[in-house]
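Journal club prep, shared notes

We agreed each person brings one worked example of a sequence with its structure written out as tokens. Mine is Glucosaminidase domain-containing protein. I'm keeping it raw so we can talk through how to read the token line rather than staring at a rendered picture. Sequence first:
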Amino acid sequence: MKKLFTVTLLLVSAIVATTTAVSAQSAPQSYIEKFKDNAIRIMHETGVPASIILGVAMHESASGKSNIAQNLNNQFGVKGGGTVVYYKHNKKVRTSYKRYDSVMDSFQDFARIMTERKQFSHLSDKLTQYDYTGWAKGIQRSGYCSSRTWASQVVAIIKKYKLGDLDEKPATTPGPELADNNQK
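Then the structure, token by token:
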């Protein structure tokens, strides 16, 4: 009976561990699927690579799982100009992080910071939307973070999830008139 209990316990533990590992891996993938179109749209508007927008957001917000990402839609840890109050587990939380109406607003503000703040605006002048490594290193060198490994961590996320593919020019699909001509 003891052996049966031990085997059952080990089997249940293995199933839980496998489920947890699969769930942990699917969280970044679902984050990418949910927000990749927003990142691509912003890339085309601003020149900031979609891979950088998503890679930095995933790094800074644990793929949307951090407290400020969930409660303030703040994916980048951007500080605001005052105190923001939100409630977590029925407790009042005061923070200096900026609140956004949506994740898209957070993405747009990050791109604005990268293109309009003097500290970062030189990056869009000298880098293309296809050079995510240059962007990550440039953002780090320009003082975005204090960690000396930040850029390599962001680049590792971009490579792991193939976010650089989002920076490619979209394939052009034939318009209706071309499609009609091909059928004749």
